[in-house]
Design a protein that fits this description.
6 strands, 13% helix, 1 helix, 3-stranded antiparallel beta sheet
């Protein structure tokens, strides 16, 4: 997972959050990033540079593979008729 990056408009310092450790800019706004939590005295002075989420592809399969799988799921089970003696 990509770390969260934010910039404080008061001092102009970029802060990058790490897991398990809080990082602060140190100015009067006290922008602090702790894991995935962002706090500051005035949040209007905070700029988000990266949100820390990874974009995953919507599907790992191609369109042909998905249509084949759907057709396979729609198959019916054949019932065999046996004569009971």
């Amino acid at each position: 997972m990509e770390p969260i990056r934010v910039r404080c408009r008061s001092c102009g310092k970029e802060v990058e959050g790490t897991s398990g450790k809080s990082v602060s800019c140190g100015c009067s706004n006290m922008l602090t990033v702790c894991g995935d939590i962002i706090s500051a005295a005035d949040m209007s002075k905070v700029i988000m540079l990266s949100t820390g989420t990874n974009r995953k592809p919507s599907s790992l399969f191609t369109r042909d593979e998905l249509t084949w799988q759907e057709a396979r799921n729609n198959r019916k089970v054949r019932k065999l008729d046996f004569d009971i003696r």
